[in-house]
Amino acid sequence: MNKRIKKKRELEDKVKWLETMLDYAIHEIIRQDKELEELKQINSRNAQATNSRFDYLEKKVADKVSKKSWFSRK
Q1: Structure confidence by residue, pLDDT tens digits, 2-24
Q2: Number of domains in the chain
Q3: Which domain holds residue 67?
Q4: How far apart are the two ends of the chain, measured CA to CA in Å?
């Protein structure tokens, strides 16, 4: 009888430990998911900023290179 009680307690302890580890893993996954979303947003903002900067530079270069009409020449 005593052996059965010990085995039962050991199993209960292992189950509690596994539940704790599972809870930790779930919380860690949720935290990493939030961090990943934040990094995606940062990446998106950086890409937008870079693209707008290149658009500005392309427009500036195109304005300098394009021929002006002879009406506006002095």
Answers
A1: 999 999 999 999 999 999 999 99
A2: 1
A3: 1-73
A4: 109
